[in-house]
Amino acid sequence: MRLDYLPVFLAAGMGIVLIYSLIIHTQTILQLPGEDSISAVDTNTASIENFVSKSALSVSQIAGFHLFGNSKVTGTKLVTPTVAPETRLKLTLFGVVAAKDNATGNAGDARAIIAGPDGKAKSIPVGGQIPGGAQLKEIYADRVILMRNGAFETLKLPKEKLSDKEIINRNIE
Prior knowledge:
The chain has helices at residues 6-30, 37-54, 59-63, 164-169, and strands spanning 92-97, 111-115, 121-125, 129-130, 134-139, 143-148, 151-156. By secondary structure, it is of the alpha+beta class. The model is unreliable at 37-42 (pLDDT under 50).
């Protein structure tokens, strides 16, 4: 016998096994009538009805299963932008102390020295009120972000250099 016919015989044998397994699985899935298939269907129907009557679930019980995970939304935080349009308030930013507490991520001791329209400068912490009805939200090395009437605005350090004499003559509280 030559080995040239071996792949043909193996393919034919695998084909016969495949057809046989398809017939068996089709009968199992479709429950074709046979001697014991009717009693099996009756038993299965009775057990399904028994299961459904014992385990009727309400919508709240199903929701309690957390099928898609358990969300832990504790609240929403307003994200302060790093870039905002310049404010139109008559304010002057004289200096900033940008600081961030690495442990908590809070602004810590960060403060901004801001003068209102009257020219009096005040040291204001993050969250503090600024003349003109604005609130100080963020402090950066060259600017601060304010919130006024629900909108974010930027107040930048002046570009011109103030002399030491001008800085000393300012009335800082």
